[in-house]
Automatic annotation (TrEMBL):
CDD domains: NAT_SF
Coiled coil (UniProt feature): none
Protein name (Swiss-Prot/TrEMBL): GCN5-related N-acetyltransferase
Occurrences of domain N-acetyltransferase (ranges): 2-158
Entry GO MF terms: acyltransferase activity, transferring groups other than amino-acyl groups
InterPro entries the record matches: Acyl_CoA_acyltransferase, GNAT_dom, N-acetyltransferase_domain
UniProt xrefs under Pfam families: Acetyltransf_1 (PF00583)
Lineage summary: Bacteria, Bacillati, Chloroflexota, Ardenticatenia, Candidatus Promineifilales
Amino acid sequence: MVQLLPMTASDFHIYLRNAVDEYAQDHVKAGNWHPSEALQRSEKEFQELLPDGVASKDQYLFSIVDGITGMKVGILWFAVRNKASHPDAFVYDFEIYEEFRRQGYGTQAFATLEERVQELGLDSISLHVFGHNQPAIALYQAAGYEITNLHMTKKLGI
């Protein structure tokens, strides 16, 4: 079984460098942001969400660790959001490193996440996934997540 261990400050800095760039690229690929503004917008969002790094209020950043080998196999970041109806957990980022994919780590990480969220007294987990990320969509649906919103675009090629 995997463990969710609090991300260290040094792991956070490595994560942040990669995550800001990947998030910008995902928004460009989805057609949300123009390439010339994407990196700046991504940096701004991360700064707003994580002003104090791993110590940011209501933000939980973890390294996903194989419980047997001790190897870091991915990352998971969720936050407690205070929505109008009731607080929930929102997964901002989740990644199983490429060399560890399709070995059950993602499923185990989300099962462990559910335990953590319940320990915080929360009864739901939400997340966003880009439409082009079919492997993630399949994982989330297999874990019991349901589509609550769906945005669609048709590119006209003009």
